Amino acid sequence: MKQRLVLLLILALSSVLLVSAQDSSLIAPIGEPEDPNIAISFPPPVYVVRDRVEVRGTANLSNMSNYFIEFRPLAVEPPAPAADGSAPVEPPWFPATLPNTGAVIDNILGEWNTSTAPDGLYEIRLTINVTGGQPQFFRVSPIRIENNVPDFIEVATAVPTQAVVQPRPTLAPSPTAFDSNPRVTALTDSNVRRGDSTAYEVIGALLTGESAPILGVSNSGSGWYYIQLSNGRRGFISPGIVRAEGNLANLGVIAPPFTPTPPATNTPTTVTNLVVNGAALQPAVPTCATAFNVAVDVLNNGSQNTGTTFTVTVTDRHTGSGTTTNTNSTTVPALAPGQNYLVLIPLTVSVYYAEEHQVTIRIDSNNQVPEPNEGDNTRVLTYTLNKGTCG
Q1: Same fold, 38-75+90-145 and 274-384
Q2: How far apart are CA 75 and CA 42, in angstroms?
Q3: Strands (E), 114-224
Q4: How far is CA 140 from CA 45, 136, 282, in A?
C-alpha cells in the first residue's frame, strides 16, 4: 500500500513538471535565428522611443555588400489574403537609415529619426545584403514611438538620486556600456583648420565616417571642436559637419591662434552648395508595377543658408531607348550650412521589365537656390527591373 502511494505521488509530480515545462515554451519570446554577426541590441523589444534614436548592434556577415535599418507599423491582425487567393501582401518597410558598407561590431548601426512617424507600435529590421546570396534580416518587435506624451504623463528631466528604476526586459542582447570618451565622427568629408573659422588655413581633414578624439572647444563661443588627427596634428573642426559623442561636460576651452587679416582679394566668399550626400533604391532591385522609394540624402555643403525651399526630382528612364517611364518630385525646406535632410520619393515603373533602367536624381531641379557649383547636384542609379506580375 505504501509503495503504491509513493508511486502515485511521483507520477503526479512528473505531470506538474511536464505541464510547467510546456507552459514555459508557450510564453517564451519567439525570436529570429541567433547569429552573433547580425543583431540589433538597442532598442530592445517592448521599449518606448522618441525623437532621434541611436540603433546599436552588429552587422558583420561575410561577403556583406551593405546594410540598413528599416521600420514599419506593427500589424494588429495578420494581412488578409489577396482577392485572387494568392498569398497576403505584407505591409511595406520604410528606410530609417541609408545603406552603409562598413562592418559594425556591437556599436552604432545608424540613427532613426522617429519624429517623422505617427505615435504607435512599430517593428524595426536590420537588413544585410550579401554578395552572391540572399539578404539576411534581424527584426525587433514591438517598439513604441511616443513623441507626443499625454498631458497627464510627466516626463522626468532629471533622475532622482534615489529613484527606483524598473529593469528593462532582457529579450534581446543587452548593449554594452557606451564609450564616454569625447570624440567626433565626420558626417561628410570635413576640413580641419588651424583656427575656429573658415578664415584659417586647412591643416588636415576627416573623411566621411572617420573619428577623432576631442581635446577641447573654442573659447570664442563658435562651438568649434579642438581635435587630434591620427597623424598627431591638432586643429579645429566645425560642429555642423560632425557628430559629437561621449562625455562633453568636462571639455576644456582652447583659444584659437591669432590670424592676420587676409587681403581683400582673398576674403572667403559665402556660398550655398547643395550636394547629393547619399542615394539608394528601396528595395535595391525594384519590381515591375510595384511602388519603390528613392532615398536621397541632401546636404548643404556650403557656408550660407539656402534661404528658401527647393525641389528634388527623380526620373526613371529605360536605358536602351532613352524613354522616360516615370518622374516625381518633392520639396525640401531651407537648409543651414552643414545641415542634411533625408527625403523618400516614390516611383512605380510598369514597362521594360528584365531590362536596365536609370534613376536620375536632381537636387534644386527648378534652380531656386543660387550656387556656383551645379555639378554635384545630380546622381544616377542603375538597376534591372524585376518582371513581377508584368508580361
Answers
A1: yes
A2: 21
A3: 120-130, 136-145, 183-186, 190-193, 202-206, 211-218
A4: 6, 14, 20
Say what the pLDDT of residue 373 is.
79
Q: Where are the beta strands (DSSP E) in 261-339?
A: 274-282, 292-300, 310-318, 324-332
Q: Count of H helices and E strands in the chain?
A: 1, 23
Q: Which of 285, 361, 287, 377 is nearest to 317 (CA)?
A: 361
Q: Which of 374, 348, 356 is nearest to 276 (CA)?
A: 374
pLDDT digit string, tens, across residues 277-298 = 999 999 999 999 999 999 999 9
Is it the case that residue 326 has pLDDT exceeding 90?
yes
Q: How far apart are CA 231 and CA 24, in angstroms?
A: 56
Mean pLDDT in residue range 371-389: 89
Only one residue has cell 576651452, namely: 253
Predicted confidence at residue 98, as pLDDT, reads 87
Euclidean distance between the first and the last CA atom of the chain, given in angstroms as a whole number: 80
Q: Which residues contact 132 (CB under 8 A, 6 or more apart)?
A: 63
* Bridge-based pairing state of the strands 183-186 and 211-218: antiparallel
Q: Distance of CA 104 to CAs 53, 65, 108, 141, 285, Å?
A: 17, 13, 7, 22, 24
Domain layout of the chain by residue ranges: 38-75+90-145, 183-260, 274-384
Pairing outcome for strands 202-206 and 183-186: unpaired
Share of the chain above pLDDT 70, in %: 79
pLDDT at 177: 57
- What pairing do the DSSP bridges indicate for beta strands 202-206 and 211-218? unpaired
When the candidates are 3.40.50.300, 2.60.40.10, 1.10.510.10, 3.30.1050.10, the CATH number that belongs to 38-75+90-145 is: 2.60.40.10
Contact between residue 145 and residue 114 where contact means Cβ atoms under 8 Å apart: yes
Q: Write down the architecture of domain 274-384 according to CATH.
A: Sandwich (2.60)
Give residue 31's pLDDT. Answer: 41
The predicted pLDDT at position 288 comes to 95
Task: Report pLDDT for 346.
Answer: 96
- The superfamily (CATH) of domain 183-260 is SH3 Domains (2.30.30.40)
CA distance 251 to 214: 8
